[in-house]
């Protein structure tokens, strides 16, 4: 796996734009925007839904309970958290952790797409329905729920990223731990696809 522990100017430039963004109403209620974190050159990029209270407080992605589970499961599969880029479709916390609305997703979409272009991961892993819904709309993939498509690998064209792999959101795994073996299998699939280019 390629490894570079710094955010280089391009990803950092995007992060600065996100931190000062006022494109939607979520800017008013945030403590911190959460651009995401990880090396400029990451083979795997994880994309969740939106920051929660813990992430809003510190400005970093997946630092609460579901983040701890995500870290535990990826590291258990042999994927070091510091080797991958982790972000979400929305960069600011929706009030009471409600689902992002269409307008918020539309405003925020250029950021995650710019991050994807800049990082050019081999595999983009979408976590949960909101992230899969966003990328399936953007790249004309089947409109299905994560339960139906998880673990399948979609070849992406005309983007810097080669493969998209949907899986469950770790918050869902906290509620239903029976899904954890599927999530582990999906991490193994992501690693397998790093070698298929
Ligand atoms: N859930 C997400 O989708 N993103 C985060 O950063 C934290 C929790």
List strands and helices in order, with pairings.
Blueprint lengths: L8 H11 L6 H4 L14 E5 L4 H6 L6 H12 L8 E4 L13 H18 L3 E5 L1 H10 L7 H4 L4 E2 L7 E5 L2 H6 L4 H15 L3
Parallel strand pairs: 1-2, 1-3, 3-5
Antiparallel strand pairs: 4-5
The structure holds uracil.
Uracil (URA) binds next to helix 4.
Lateral arrangement of strands in the main beta sheet = 2-1-3-5-4
Low-confidence stretches: none
CATH superfamily name?
Uracil-DNA glycosylase-like domain
CATH T-level topology? Uracil-DNA Glycosylase, subunit E
Examine the secondary-structure arrangement and name the CATH architecture: 3-Layer(aba) Sandwich
Order of helices and strands: HHEHHEHEHHEEHH
Number of strands: 5
Would you mind describing this structure in some detail?
The chain has a single domain (9-193), classed as Uracil-DNA Glycosylase, subunit E, CATH 3.40.470. It has helices spanning 9-19, 26-29, 53-58, 65-76, 102-119, 129-138, 146-149, 170-175, 180-194; strands at residues 44-48, 85-88, 123-127, 154-155, 163-167. It has 9 helices and 5 strands. A 5-stranded mixed sheet has the order 2-1-3-5-4, with helices on both faces. It starts with 8 loop residues before the first helix and ends with a helix. It is 44% helix and 11% strand. The longest helix has 18 residues, at 102-119. Uracil binds next to α4.
